[in-house]
Each structure stands twice: as C-alpha cells, then as structure tokens.
Write a structure and sequence with these properties.
Layout lengths: L9 H8 L15 H15 L14 H8 L24 H21 L5 E3 L3 E3 L1 H18 L6
Antiparallel strand pairs: 1-2
Helix pairs in contact: 2-4, 2-5
Length: 153
C-alpha cells in the first residue's frame, strides 16, 4: 500500500524537503513554505483522526470523485480546499514544522496499521479509508511540493 504514497517514506520526503527554505517562493498560490508544511501536516493528522468535517460534495458525485483519486491526474494548480483557512503559525519555524509533519505521517501509518477499518471524512471526497487517504495525500503532497519547486511537474 505504501507504494500509493511514496512521498510518505521518511527518507524520500526528507530528501525532497531538505531543499525547502523559509524564503522559498511558490510558483502559484499565497502560502509560504511553513504554511504549506503546516497545511500538509494538518490534513495528514486529520486523516488519522476521528474529527468530523462537513462533506461539501453532493452524495451522488462521490463515486466519480473517488474514481478520480485513482487516476494519475494532478490536483489543479488553482484547486482551493473549501475548508482551508489562513491560520497563524503552529510552530516557531520551518524546521519544527517539518519535524511535526514527519511525526504526523508516522502517526497516520500507525493508526491505520492498528485500525485498518478506520475512515475519516474529506470535505470533497467524503469518507476515505487508508487507501483513499494514501491516494489523496500523494496527489496533495505532489501538488504542494511542485508548487514550491521541490518536484518536477
């Protein structure tokens, strides 16, 4: 299953993120580097939690949206998470935020190892299981790491 989300491998992600600096400018969007890392961390942690979130997509569209997760199509550059809000920094610096992201990813995998039946809601795709979240996170990480020039388009 981990092949669905290779960017979650600690060595792989560390190698990509070592090029990220606090002043790295994104190719699009308005987040800075630390906000992007904290955004990824927050969603990874949500995906392993029992927190609820409103599912904004109509029920009848969920099967089609979930099928899209199974494609290699990237998230569009202008994709806006409908529940994303600007937040004050959760960490004092980028290095601490990156460390938290690694911890969040380890927790994510641990939760699903211990509770393979766990599901958690995504505001666009509805309730996702481990495989669904792996697919989403891979697309989401690729989107933001490309945004900051850390991966090729």
């Amino acid at each position: 299953m981990i092949a669905l989300f290779p960017l979650s491998q600690p060595a792989t992600l560390a190698a990509v993120l070592e090029k990220l600096q606090p002043d790295t400018t994104p190719a699009w969007g308005r987040m800075n580097a630390q906000q992007m890392i904290e955004h990824l961390d927050g969603i990874v942690r949500h995906s392993a939690s029992d927190e609820g979130t409103e599912i904004l997509s109509p029920e009848e569209t969920l099967p089609k949206l979930r099928r899209w997760l199974e494609t290699d199509k990237p998230l569009p550059k202008d994709f806006m998470n409908p529940v994303y809000k600007d937040r004050p920094p959760a960490h004092p610096d980028l290095e601490t935020a990156i460390r938290s992201l690694h911890e969040g990813l380890a927790h994510f995998h641990q939760v699903y190892d211990l509770h393979p039946e766990h599901t958690s809601p995504h505001p666009v795709f509805g309730y996702l299981d481990y495989e669904g979240w792996l697919r989403f996170h891979q697309k989401h990480f690729r989107h933001h790491l490309t945004q900051f020039g850390l991966l090729e388009e």
